[in-house]
Design goal:
This protein is mainly α and 205 residues long. The protein has one domain. It is built from eight helices and no strands. The N and C termini lie close together (5 Å).
C-alpha cells in the first residue's frame, strides 16, 4: 500500500543509560519520519551510504584495538555492554531501514521502523520496573506496553499522516511486540522491523 504523496533484554539487571534510550528514540525515528516525506529512492541511497560508512567503521575498529577502545569510551553512554566487540545496534538499525525501504512499500517500512524506535524503549522502560513472571527474561507487561505504543503509532500514521487504514497494521504491531519479547538473533534492531514488515507486506498492507 503506497503512502499518499506529499535487542536488549528487559531483565532484572541494571537499567540501560538514559542517553541510549533517548538516542534510540530520536535516531530511530528520524529515518521513518524522513521516509514519509522523501522518495523511496532517496531513502535507499541515503541509507546505503550510511550503512557503508557504518560497516566500514565497524570493520576498522575491530581490527584496530586502540581505535575501538577510544570509540567505545567516547560513545559508552550509547552502547550496550557487549557492543565493544560486536556490531552495534545503530548499524543494525540502519541495515533494517535499508532492507525495509528496499523490500516493502513506504507505508510498511515507515510503520515497522516506528514500531522499533518507539515501542522498544517503551517495553524496556515499563518492563524493567515490573515485578512478576518473566518470559525469555522479560516482563509480559513490557510487551503489552510495546503493543500499545505500536497501536498508537498506527493511529497517528492513519489519522495524521494520511496512511490508508489496513487491519494488517494491527497484526504487524502484535508481531513486532512478540519478536521483541523473543529477542531473536542477531539483534532486535534488525529483527523487529523486518519480521513485522514482512508480516504486514504478506497481508497486503
Amino acid at each position: 500500500m503506497a503512502v499518499p504523496s506529499n535487542g536488549t533484554q528487559r531483565n532484572t539487571g541494571s537499567q540501560p543509560p538514559v542517553p541510549r534510550r533517548i538516542f534510540h528514540f530520536v535516531a530511530g525515528s528520524i529515518v521513518p519520519i524522513a521516509g514519509i516525506f522523501l522518495p523511496e529512492s532517496v531513502m535507499v541511497a541515503g541509507l546505503a551510504v550510511l550503512l557503508a560508512g557504518g560497516l566500514g567503521l565497524e570493520l576498522v575498529r575491530f581490527k584496530v584495538d586502540w581505535l575501538n577502545q577510544r570509540l567505545v569510551r567516547w560513545f559508552a553512554p550509547l552502547l550496550k555492554a557487549d557492543e565493544n566487540h560486536r556490531i552495534t545496534g545503530a548499524t543494525y538499525m540502519v541495515l533494517a531501514g535499508l532492507i525495509a525501504f528496499l523490500l516493502f512499500d513506504t507505508a510498511v517500512a515507515v510503520t515497522a521502523l516506528l514500531f522499533l524506535s518507539l515501542g522498544d524503549p517503551a517495553a524496556a522502560l515499563v518492563g524493567r520496573r515490573m515485578r512478576g513472571p518473566r518470559l525469555f527474561g522479560k516482563s509480559p507487561v513490557g510487551t503489552a506496553a510495546f503493543f500499545l505504543v505500536s497501536l498508537a503509532v498506527v493511529a497517528v500514521l492513519v489519522g495524521g499522516a494520511g496512511f490508508p487504514y489496513h487491519w494488517g497494521f494491527l497484526v504487524g504491531a502484535a508481531v513486532a511486540a512478540l519478536v521483541e519479547l523473543a529477542s531473536l538473533p542477531p539483534d532486535d534492531n534488525l529483527t523487529i522491523p523486518i519480521i513485522a514488515g514482512a508480516a504486514m507486506h504478506l497481508l497486503g498492507v
